[in-house]
Design a protein that fits this description.
Oligomer: heterodimer
Strand order of the largest sheet of chain A: 6-7-8-3-9-10
Low-confidence stretches of chain B: none
Mean pLDDT of chain A: 89
Distance between the termini of chain A: 83 Å
Low-confidence stretches of chain A: 582-589
Strand content of chain B: 5-15%
Structural class of chain A: alpha/beta
Helix content of chain B: 55-70%
CATH superfamily of the largest domain in chain A: ABC transporter type 1, transmembrane domain
CATH architecture of the largest domain in chain A: Up-down Bundle
Helix content of chain A: 55-70%
CATH topology of the largest domain in chain A: ABC transporter transmembrane region fold
Chain lengths: ~600, ~600
């Protein structure tokens, strides 16, 4: 039930309107009886007397005209009111899910890497689509129907008791059984809906990964296998759906039979009472005519409680997402950097432990403003983890990282990140124009600026050849561009924020050497002060750095310039010799 | 076609078409028997339910005046029997309908997914993946009820309507015509509202697609967004899409809700008119009893009309989704098995490009008159500027695209004439983008050959030097990684992808920047392992680090839409051409 309370709290500014809508529903439930009352009146006052007397009395036609006018007017009023009420529900529920989506989106933007490793995209998508719709459906429809049922049930019950309490009691005798069955059912169905939701999420994830990995699927000719795998999920979802629905079918015959047997009570008990004169034929007719208003809510109760269980399963997922908290946030007393960050980066005895594994230990490193530092090391040594500490993608578990002499945890997170430009290893581009991708960090950037940075990153050469130049839309994740082209756009994007600290994580690995050389020259001549931290695999990338840092197994093993390190036995020299193995050959040749 | 972005509606130009419903009919047709039985059961259930009022009538008219308690009890028992029969038939119908509804969406989804597996890269590159995902999951879920219960109810209501119309006509033709005069009136309303309604629901489906596409992309690119502190702006974009969706939804509601309002009002008008006309013009010549009877029929006539109009809304909505689903199912398969395609026999490894011309878009040629002959077991390196077409050459080899001109022969067989599966399953392609599926590392490597034993998987991992880091992870090969692969560094992902390719035991190996993120030392080790494996296999290697390719049998310098230079490393150096330039540049770094 806390899910309902939570949703109620989220309705915030709409409380009054929502209550109004619920009250309107109650009124409409009663008004729905209006048509039959007016029609009955027409029958009783116009046609039945006519049938009995055979002649039209004076003024009867006038009376009928008035009654028809009342009927038409009343219907117009009722439907108008109903239309208005329904739209109110739609409005409120749309506002609710609009706000929820907005808040969830914002919350997800604040989540750290741990969150994104734990939740799959397909699962998050399920929450913001299917689960969200369940909430809408509940606020807009289920609760309305429940109110409708309750009102019909109570008004009829009261009417019945007023007419004849014993007969009313006989009719209501079945209700406890119906409630019991409904209760049992909804308790049993809950886990099924939780399971169904998981299956939907699994289906979503399977489809999502197949779409994202379509190139790999083709490359391995795994279409058949993928179809099979998806079929498994598709089937599981189907079966879970059936299972949940079939459970209802196990209960519904009893509930249906019980609620319909109200008519039997009327026939048998009412008939007996009629015979012994306890009730009149009028009372009997009233009971008989209104039986459905009592049985209908009882039958539907199960259906709506069923839906409500789905709602509980979905709302739980939404609430979980709503309250997930990132560990990486600005402190309440966070400071803003004074003016432009100079770019002095210092690692002080930094250690990082991720999922029980020591990724980095005892890192001490000082980088002066404007310096270029290259970081090298074997695959998986911790290079990317190390540079990820600067924009706080993760927080160190020991020691601290300082920027301009201030621990980075003390900075406002956004201010910190805006002073850093980063091109990550796994290039992610957005399905936007080339221009839009480069200006990602500052979408108000004038075109000339974009083109200037494109020039520096050597994007200009190929961008201008694209069908619409910089306005060419590139596919999601930059599909359609070569690896080197994507990397260069990512580089231009990082440069375009004019960062104080520029982090390039193996950004030129897929770029040919001539281009790389050009880029390096451009980077050396940037017109804003900038500390450059470059993760590299190639000697050619690292060679000209002011300082080369070698990381092995999470620790710094070598620091020095190219000249120093290439003479000293160690990782750097080994790699240098490997990559320049041709040197001797050339000398020989 | 221009690429589609998240904020661009995918407009559907075809007018409203019953075709989509008919096509859905082929899915429903598979369940003809169940549908027919459901119809029958529903009819029987309804018929049994009709017995109730008759029994009550008998009780009041006969048993009560006769003070016959015995008969009252008998009637009650009869009524109970009628209820049970009715409930059981209704249950049998629901059982079928649950199954049919789920089977239909299962089938549609299965077919759509299977079709997606055949679609070219282009398809995936041209639109946000979120839009594809929304169709596979959300849209298909939305049509389930319309295609199962919707159809049955539609038939039943029509049946109901005809039945009541016949009863009315038997009572009195003229008054019946008055009641039925409302039907054309309603049709006019529907006719007027329909275009707006269809547009509105299409708009809803578009806007939800846009919203989901943006969400999907946001989730995938979250790290970049955070790094560039673009959260607020993105939240703003999401907010705008959110608002648009909400508006589209409300707009659809404004028109959709009008339908039931119209039905309610029109029905009241015609019944009112019937009363007035009946009294004023027909009164003297007819039995008043007829009017009384007609009055109750008239209301009952309009109840199915109301239900039908609600169903109509459901169908309009479902068709909006079906259009999208079938549109995707009709997406042309550009690369497919030719009619009469044969299985490619086990590859020896002779590759021949004969006067190959290729263009992605049909206007700009990427390759022109490309000729190349490769003997079995040769290793071929491709170098050249980014975007020159190196990846294109190897993509053609796997027939990811069809040639614009010329022929590509494998062991003398034109690859256009063999089945894609037999071709691609013998090729090992290591793509630039090393996509990792969520699952264990073991599963990811095994993707290369599904029947590989654990030992074989581990052996492959050892060959590419991935074994060491994998066994250091807390659960070794059973460590879960997710689709963004965030547990692995880029280099590690490449190694896993590499192992996956090797495991597939390809006859022709294509390495497209396969080692760009791997450090030089590891790469050296990988190469040593690889050399043994490459014995007798033809291989194509694209790499920027020339140390990687120096020992290849032949090096092709790809530029200007073809091969600019070709020869061994030494021969090309002696030539002092573009390769030589590249090589010296690398040495000078």
């Amino acid at each position: 039930m806390f899910q309902l309370r939570w949703v109620w709290a989220r309705l915030g500014g709409s409380h009054k309107r929502y209550l109004f809508a619920l009250v309107s529903t109650a009124l409409l439930a009663v008004m729905a009886l209006g048509n039959s009352i007016i029609t009955a009146n027409i029958m009783d006052t116009v046609f039945r007397p006519l049938q009995e007397s055979g002649t039209a009395g004076p003024g009867i036609s006038g009376h009928l005209q008035v009654m028809v006018a009342v009927l038409v007017g009343f219907t117009l009023l009722r439907t108008g009111f109903g239309y208005f009420t329904n739209l109110t529900y739609e409005n409120i529920s749309q506002k609710l899910i609009y706000e929820l989506r907005r808040d969830l989106y914002k919350n997800m933007q604040e989540q750290d890497q741990a969150f994104y490793s734990a939740y799959r995209t397909g699962d998050l998508m399920t929450r913001l689509t299917g689960d969200m719709d369940m909430i809408r459906h509940t606020v807009c429809f289920i609760l309305r129907q429940l109110i409708h049922c309750i009102v019909l049930f109570t008004t009829t019950t009261i009417t019945f008791f007023a007419a004849d309490w014993l007969l009313a009691l006989c009719m209501l005798a079945v209700t406890p059984f119906i409630f019991l069955l409904t209760f049992l059912f909804s308790r049993q169905v809950h886990p099924l809906y939780v399971d169904l939701r998981e299956k939907l999420s699994g289906l979503n994830t399977a489809a999502q990964e197949n779409i994202a990995g379509n190139r790999v699927v083709r490359a391995f000719a795994r279409e058949g296998y993928e179809i099979e795998r998806f079929d498994e999920k598709n089937r599981a979802y189907k079966e879970a759906n059936k299972k949940a629905s079939l459970l209802w079918l196990r209960y519904s015959p009893y509930i249906e039979t019980l609620s319909q047997s109200l008519s039997i009570a009327v026939l048998l008990v009412g008939g007996i009472f009629l015979i012994n004169g306890r009730i009149t034929i009028g009372t009997f007719t009233m009971f008989n005519g209104l039986t459905w208003t009592l049985s209908e809510p009882m039958r539907s109760l199960g259906v709506y409680l069923n839906d409500l269980q789905r709602f509980f399963a979905s709302a739980g997922k939404i609430i979980e997402l709503y309250y997930s908290k990132s560990t990486i946030v600005s402190r309440p007393d966070a400071v803003m950097p004074q003016g432009r960050v100079k770019g002095r980066v210092e690692f002080k005895d930094v250690g990082l432990k991720l999922r029980g594994t020591q990724v980095l230990s005892h890192i001490d490193l000082k980088i002066e403003p404007g310096e270029t530092v290259a970081i090298m090391g074997p695959t998986g040594a911790g290079k990317t983890s190390l540079i990820g500490l600067i924009p706080r993608f993760a927080d160190p578990t020991a020691g601290q990282v300082e920027l301009d002499g201030v621990p980075i945890r003390r900075y406002d997170l956004k201010a910190l990140r805006s002073s850093i430009g980063i091109a990550t290893q796994d290039v992610f581009l957005f399905s936007d124009t080339v221009d839009g991708n480069i200006a990602y960090g500052d979408s108000g950037m004038p075109e000339e600026e974009v083109e200037r940075f494109a020039q520096i990153a050597d994007v200009a050469g190929f961008a201008e050849k694209l069908p619409q130049g910089y306005d060419t839309v590139i596919g999601e994740r930059g599909t359609g561009l070569s690896g080197g082209q994507k990397q260069r756009i990512a580089l231009a994007r990082a440069l375009a924020v004019k960062p104080s600290v520029l982090i390039l994580d193996d950004t030129t690995s897929a770029v040919d050497l001539e281009t790389e050389k050009y880029i390096q020259e451009q980077l050396a001549g940037l017109d804003f002060p900038c500390t450059k931290i470059i993760v590299a695999q190639r000697i050619s990338t690292a060679k000209r750095a002011d300082k080369i840092v070698v990381i092995e197994d999470g620790s710094i093993t070598e620091v020095g310039t190219h000249e120093e390190l290439s003479q000293k036995p160690g990782y750097y020299r080994e790699v240098f010799l490997l990559q320049n193995g041709g040197e001797e050959e050339r000398q020989v040749g | 076609m221009a690429r589609n972005r998240f904020d661009v509606d995918e407009n559907l130009e075809t007018p409203f078409n019953i075709k989509h419903l008919l096509r859905a009919g082929t899915y429903i047709g598979r369940h003809k028997k169940k549908m027919a039985l459901s119809l029958l059961y529903s009819a029987l259930s309804a018929a049994a339910a009709l017995l109730g009022p008759l029994l009550v009538q008998r009780g009041i008219n006969v048993s009560v005046p006769n003070r016959d308690y015995g008969e009252l009890v008998l009637l009650s028992v009869g009524m109970l029997a009628a209820i049970i029969v009715s409930v059981l038939f209704a249950r049998a119908r629901s059982r079928y309908m649950i199954s049919v509804g789920q089977e239909i969406i299962y089938d549609i989804r299965k077919d759509l997914f299977a079709h997606l597996q055949k679609l070219p890269f282009q398809f995936y590159d041209d639109r946000p993946h979120g839009k594809i995902l929304t169709r596979v999951i959300n849209y298909i879920n939305s049509v389930s009820d319309a295609l199962s219960n919707g159809i049955i109810n539609f038939v039943l209501e029509i049946f109901n309507l005809v039945l009541i119309a016949v009863f009315m006509l038997i009572c009195d033709v003229r008054l019946s015509l008055v009641v039925m005069a409302g039907v054309p009136l309603l049709l006019v309303v529907i006719f007027l509202v329909k275009p707006a309604q269809r547009r509105a629901w299409q708009d809803v489906s578009n806007k939800s697609s846009n919203l989901n596409a943006y969400l999907h992309e946001s989730l995938d690119g979250m790290k970049i967004t955070q790094a560039f502190t673009r959260e607020e702006e993105n939240a703003g974009i999401y907010d705008r899409l959110n608002v648009k969706y909400r508006k589209a939804w409300m707009k659809a509601q404004y028109t959709s809700q009008l339908i039931w309002v119209s039905v309610d009002n029109i029905s009241t008008w015609v019944v009112g008119a019937m009363y007035l006309i009946g009294l004023a013009f027909l009164g003297p010549t007819m039995q008043i009893g007829t009017i009384i009877a007609l009055s109750s029929y008239a209301w009952r006539f309009w109840q199915p009309m109301l239900n039908l109009s609600n169903l109509y809304n459901t169908f309009i909505n479902a068709v909006a989704y079906l259009e999208r689903i079938f549109e995707m199912m009709d997406e042309p398969v550009t690369v497919d098995d030719a009619p009469g395609a044969t299985e490619l026999p086990p590859i020896q490894g002779r590759v021949e490009f004969k006067d190959v011309t290729f263009s992605y878009d049909g206007t700009v040629n990427v390759l022109e008159h490309f000729d190349l002959k490769v003997e079995p077991g040769q290793s071929i390196a491709l170098v050249g500027p980014t975007g020159a077409g190196k990846t294109t050459v190897v993509n053609l080899l796997s027939r990811f695209y069809d040639l614009t001109g010329g022929q590509l022969l494998l062991d003398g067989t034109d690859i256009a004439g063999v089945t894609l599966h037999s071709l691609r399953s013998q090729m090992g392609i290591m793509l630039q983008d090393s996509f990792i599926f969520s699952g264990t590392i073991m599963e990811n490597i095994r993707y290369g050959r599904l029947d590989a034993t654990d030992e074989e998987v581990i052996a492959a991992a050892k060959t590419v030097c991935a074994h060491e880091f994998i066994s250091q992870m807390e659960q070794g090969y059973d460590t879960q990684v997710n689709e963004r692969g965030s547990r692995l560094s880029q280099g590690q992902r490449q190694l896993v992808a590499f192992a996956r390719t090797l495991l597939s035991d390809p006859k022709i190996l294509v390495l497209d920047e396969a080692t760009s993120s791997i450090d030089a030392k590891t790469e050296k080790l990988v190469q040593q392992g690889l050399n043994a494996l490459l014995q007798g296999r033809t291989s194509f290697i694209i790499a920027h680090r020339l140390s990687t390719i120096k020992n290849c049998d032949r090096i092709l310098y790809i530029a200007d839409k073809g091969i600019a230079e070709m020869g061994t490393h030494q021969a090309l150096l002696d030539k002092q051409g573009r390769y030589w330039q590249l090589y010296t540049a690398q040495l000078e770094g």
